[in-house]
């Protein structure tokens, strides 16, 4: 796996971890154009489970090419930090 193998939770495919901003992640996770019966809080929690470091770093990160592993780890960390920030705002 590599950076581009992941479906990062943003509307436009990011090239770097810096592009995974809270605003960009919020636009994707809380997109009003995607019908959902779940609350915003539940939608955020669903993504947190998917990107949780314990799960991500044990199951997916070992499968990432060594030359991109640090970049992917940084990106996943940024996603989780942003999701936690969104959860605090709910």
Outline the fold blueprint.
Elements: H1 22-29, H2 40-51, H3 53-60, H4 69-89
The average pLDDT value, as a whole number, equals 96
Number of E strands:
0
Radius of gyration (CA) equals 13 Å
Q: Approximately how much beta-strand content do the residues carry?
A: under 5%
Helix proportion range: 40-55%
Task: Please count the helical segments.
Answer: 4
Q: What is the general shape?
A: globular
Largest sheet: none
What can you tell me about this protein's structure?
The protein is mainly alpha-helical and 90 residues long. It is 54% helix and 0% strand. It is built from four helices and no strands. Helix 1 crosses helix 4 (69-89) and helix 2 packs antiparallel against helix 4.
Concise description?
By secondary structure, the protein is mainly α. 54% of the residues lie in helices and 0% in strands. Helix 1 crosses helix 4 and helix 2 packs antiparallel against helix 4.
Supply database-style keywords.
globular; 4 helices; mainly alpha; 54% helix; 90 residues
């Amino acid at each position: 796996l590599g950076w581009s193998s992941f479906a990062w939770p943003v509307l436009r495919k990011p090239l770097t971890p810096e592009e995974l901003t809270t605003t960009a992640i919020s636009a994707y996770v809380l997109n009003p154009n995607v019908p959902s019966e779940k609350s915003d809080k539940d939608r955020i929690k669903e993504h947190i489970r998917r990107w949780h470091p314990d799960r991500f770093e044990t199951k997916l990160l070992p499968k990432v090419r060594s030359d991109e592993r640090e970049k992917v780890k940084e990106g996943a960390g940024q996603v989780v930090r942003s999701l936690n920030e969104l959860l605090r705002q709910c």
